[in-house]
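Chapter summary example: a protein plus magnesium ion.
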Amino acid sequence: MKNSKNLKIDNSYAEKLYEISEKCPPKGFKKAEILLRNYSLAKELGFDKSFVDSDECLNIFAGNNLLENSIPIAQGYSGHQFGHFNPQLGDGRAILLGEINKMDIQLKGIGQTPYSRRGDGKSALSPVLREYMISEFMHALKIPTTRSLFAMKTNEDVQRETTLPGGVLTRIAKSHIRIGTFEYARTKNIQILKTLADYSIDRHYSDLKDTDNKYLSFFAGVCDKQASLVSKWMSIGFIHGVMNTDNMAISGETIDYGPCAFMDKYNPKTVFSSIDHSGRYSYHNQPAILIWNLAKFAETLIPLIDEDNEISIKKLTEILHHTMPLYQEYFYKEFAEKLGLQTIDNKNVKIIDNYLKILHSESIDFTLSFRNLAKIVDKSITIEDSVFSKSGVFTKWYKSWKKEINISNVSQQMNLKNPCYIPRNHLIEIALKNGVDGDMTKINLITKLLESPFIEKDGYEKYTMPSSSDERYITYCGT
Ligand code: AMP
Ligand code: MG
């Protein structure tokens, strides 16, 4: 596609779910410029490079010009935030332009919408750049996620605690339907709820359309996708940070990269978010919170499953009860792969558990440990030179592990599963600071390294290492 005239945009959500969304053309940012362009994602969407580099493109994604046939909307949703129900959330700072190739095209930080409440609808530049880097890293790891097409600098200020440069992210998603969207539809009426469920099934679970009780199968489908997703988060030390029901997509994609961060030293209680005082969304609570959120989702579906509420509840509960064991299966599958273990039997489960115990008791860097282990087994480093050097029990564990693996190719296999580069908190912070000050060198470099996170490149050792400081890293929701 050379220009926007050839670009076909659909508005299926705006057309079918007009009762839970609001039409809302963006006001736009006249002085905006694009700082990060995702050419490969643009290609997947059918844009060619000359269009991506054009002013026409800039003006569309800065919200200055509308695509032909686009019906821009803000989507309504509710949500349980830190356990408390808020019926009236919605896209307070995001506008959906429509769908291209069945993918949502959304501008985040684009200004006020009917759901803005007291907010300005805008976003600071730093979290826009941060979401771009982290979401694209998740994609590089093949973890389902919303994507980032453009990161823009608006060249206008936003007022937070201080005055900050503003930004807009073009977010691409399979859809932006959240558990919170169902909670919102439920506050309306059953017909709207049913339309939303049918629409979601059509868009994300079309193979369930003709099953016996498609709404029940739909619930099971979402439970399965989410259990798999959270197991993948756990496998890379990802802490989402704000697993409210409005931040969980029914497509099974990771969404909302506000206060997320990656664990460095392995400690299951790790929390980064400044507002998560009780550790509700800590690393090891993520699976339990997932089940809690899915229970909220189940509640919204009660009227669709059976005329008799008791029967509905019974059927939904059965599936919910299956979801934690399902999650555990996924979890051990992920960790078995990380450790190059071929099977998941009781013995190997114990090997995985014991490995994590060592990381915990010795405060070992989670990400680095797996790469070090691969180097120990292929003899490129010794235990003494590794992160395990201080552990008295590692050698015993190592022997038990070695019996279960295929030594000839285990390190190659492990290195395909365990990234050497992750968005290291201390490095990302410096890069963002530079980026906001106008120097994108470090952001461009980190973005490039994170595109192929399994391949160690000479000269970039520093990017594989944790911070030398013991200071706790704190993240903020504020955008
Ligand atoms: P989040 O923390 O990103 O999950 O957002 C929670 C809710 O606050 C959503 O309904 C957002 O749309 C809304 N929100 C966050 N920031 C703003 C803002 N600057 N202006 C208006 N609404 C906002
Ligand atoms: Mg959100």
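Key point: Residues 4-173 form one domain.
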